[in-house]
Amino acid sequence: MINDNLTLTGALTISVNNTVVQETKNLVVTAGKNWVANRLKDSATPYAQKAEMSHMAIGKDTTTIAAAPVLAAHTVLVDEVVRSVLTTDGGVVATNTITYACTYAAGTGTAAITEAGIFNASTGGDMFARTKFAVVNKGSADSMTITWVITVS
User: Fold this and answer.
1) Cα separation values, 39 from 25, 89, 100, 105, 143, Å
2) Which of 3, 30, 76, 148 is the most buried (most CB within 10 A)?
3) DSSP-derived 3-state class of residue 19
4) Rounded to 5 degrees, what angle do the CA atoms 52, 10, 83 make?
5) Which residues contact 53 (CB under 8 A, 6 or more apart)?
6) Using CA atoms, how far apart are residues 6 and 70, in angstroms rounded to an integer?
7) Per-residue pLDDT tens for 15-24?
8) Structural contact between residues 83 and 109, judged by C-beta atoms closer than 8 angstroms
9) Rounded CA gap, 78 and 149, in Å?
10) E strand or H helix at 36, and its extent?
11) More confident residue, 114 or 67
12) 74 to each of 56, 78, 106, 115, 140, how far by Cα in Å?
């Protein structure tokens, strides 16, 4: 019997002022898996309407995260602070991974950050992946970079 399962997993690294402060795993949500499936189809609708991932959002929700099946249905961050354009211009592909990165400059996204997500629009759009993590305090003078690697295996 052939058993060929395709999975999408991810991990991200959070740096404040060029120092790694946290590394964590993420969940590729149902909307993100649907986005991938649509990208595999062809250039006809709905593919043409499914823009590449272009933005990363950070938020400050502290609610305990639900189990994976419930979390997988999430389509937005619970308490979004700011959404910014990716610094990797749609991601960088290497072997079976894609890497997204976003830098929040001093004065942008100042808060006690506890969640992040990848999106294909500046507002709304499809959420590809989401994670919650222990508080990362981003002060007004701090620069924060999140590097997010999604692995297809």
Assistant:
1) 24, 17, 17, 32, 33
2) 148
3) strand
4) 50
5) 86, 90, 91, 100, 118, 119, 120, 128
6) 21
7) 999 999 999 9
8) no
9) 22
10) helix 30-41
11) 114
12) 15, 9, 29, 12, 29
The whole-angstrom separation of Cα 67 and Cα 148 is 21
Q: Outline where 45-114 has alpha helix (H).
A: 68-71
pLDDT value, residue 47: 45
- Which range is least confidently modeled, 14-28, 33-47, 139-153? 33-47
Q: Is the pLDDT of residue 49 over 70?
A: no
Tell me the pTM: 0.83
* Residue 100 token pair: 């997204």
Are 50 and 38 within 8 A, CB to CB? yes
Lowest mean pLDDT among 31-35, 52-56, 68-72: 68-72
Q: 37: helix, coil or strand?
A: helix
Q: Check if the beta carbon of residue 129 is closer than 8 Å to that of residue 150.
A: yes
| pLDDT > 70 fraction of the chain, expressed in percent and rounded | 84
Separation between Cα atoms, residue 56 and residue 43, nearest integer Å: 25
The pairs formed by 91-94 with CB atoms below 8 angstroms and a separation of 24 or more are: 91/52, 91/53
